[in-house]
Amino acid sequence: MKIVTGITGASGSIYALRLIEVLRKAGHEIHAVVTDSGWQVLSHECGVDRQEMQRRVDVLYNNDDTGAAIASGSFLTDAMVIVPCSMKTAGCIAHGISDNLLTRAADVTLKENHPLLLVPRETPMHAIHLENLLKLAQAGARIIPASPGFYHRPQTLDDLVDMMVGKICDQLGVRHSLFERWH
């Protein structure tokens, strides 16, 4: 599959990095776009810069390049995952504001009826956040809050991250063994 991965300035960049690692290992093609605040959080939380990200993905786009391939419905992709997804980004997508490449690619993903997965990490959420997420779900997006479960009895932070990444992979139809399933 060809999967677009968007990374915004919400906390939780570790989920994006692990997802990219799992998808690449499974042989999928990753096209990535990171917002300016996404770069700041990636650097702060994970020590990852543009050069390091370039090595992790197949194609890394500049978020200001609204003419890039992923901005067009004629560029075939299989899905888009925005992880983590800030409430700003969710709000822009919910209201059709495509003012950068990430929000344009998400708009195109919805328009082309391909899976759009949003992984919000914000907490608590107020009514406007919830309304935007509901509007996106009604438009066809899948909302996967970054709230890992504990039934698999995680022992490490990596176990919690893998649980969330596994849930994202489930929605993409990507087989994995990232966590023990409920019996």
TrEMBL record:
<keyword id="KW-0637">Prenyltransferase</keyword>
<feature type="binding site">
    <location>
        <position position="35"/>
    </location>
    <ligand>
        <name>FMN</name>
    </ligand>
</feature>
<keyword id="KW-0285">Flavoprotein</keyword>
<dbReference type="InterPro" id="IPR036551">
    <property type="entry name" value="Flavin_trans-like"/>
</dbReference>
<feature type="binding site">
    <location>
        <begin position="86"/>
        <end position="89"/>
    </location>
    <ligand>
        <name>FMN</name>
    </ligand>
</feature>
<keyword id="KW-0808">Transferase</keyword>
<comment type="similarity">
    <text>Belongs to the UbiX/PAD1 family.</text>
</comment>
<protein>
    <recommendedName>
        <fullName>Flavin prenyltransferase UbiX</fullName>
        <ecNumber>2.5.1.129</ecNumber>
    </recommendedName>
</protein>
<dbReference type="GO" id="GO:0106141">
    <property type="term" value="F:flavin prenyltransferase activity"/>
</dbReference>
<dbReference type="GO" id="GO:0016831">
    <property type="term" value="F:carboxy-lyase activity"/>
</dbReference>
<dbReference type="Pfam" id="PF02441">
    <property type="entry name" value="Flavoprotein"/>
</dbReference>
<dbReference type="InterPro" id="IPR004507">
    <property type="entry name" value="UbiX-like"/>
</dbReference>
<dbReference type="InterPro" id="IPR003382">
    <property type="entry name" value="Flavoprotein"/>
</dbReference>
<feature type="binding site">
    <location>
        <begin position="9"/>
        <end position="11"/>
    </location>
    <ligand>
        <name>FMN</name>
    </ligand>
</feature>
<feature type="domain" description="Flavoprotein">
    <location>
        <begin position="1"/>
        <end position="172"/>
    </location>
</feature>
<feature type="binding site">
    <location>
        <position position="121"/>
    </location>
    <ligand>
        <name>FMN</name>
    </ligand>
</feature>
<keyword id="KW-0288">FMN</keyword>
<comment type="function">
    <text>Flavin prenyltransferase that catalyzes the synthesis of the prenylated FMN cofactor (prenyl-FMN) for 4-hydroxy-3-polyprenylbenzoic acid decarboxylase UbiD. The prenyltransferase is metal-independent and links a dimethylallyl moiety from dimethylallyl monophosphate (DMAP) to the flavin N5 and C6 atoms of FMN.</text>
</comment>
<feature type="binding site">
    <location>
        <position position="167"/>
    </location>
    <ligand>
        <name>dimethylallyl phosphate</name>
    </ligand>
</feature>
<feature type="binding site">
    <location>
        <position position="151"/>
    </location>
    <ligand>
        <name>dimethylallyl phosphate</name>
    </ligand>
</feature>
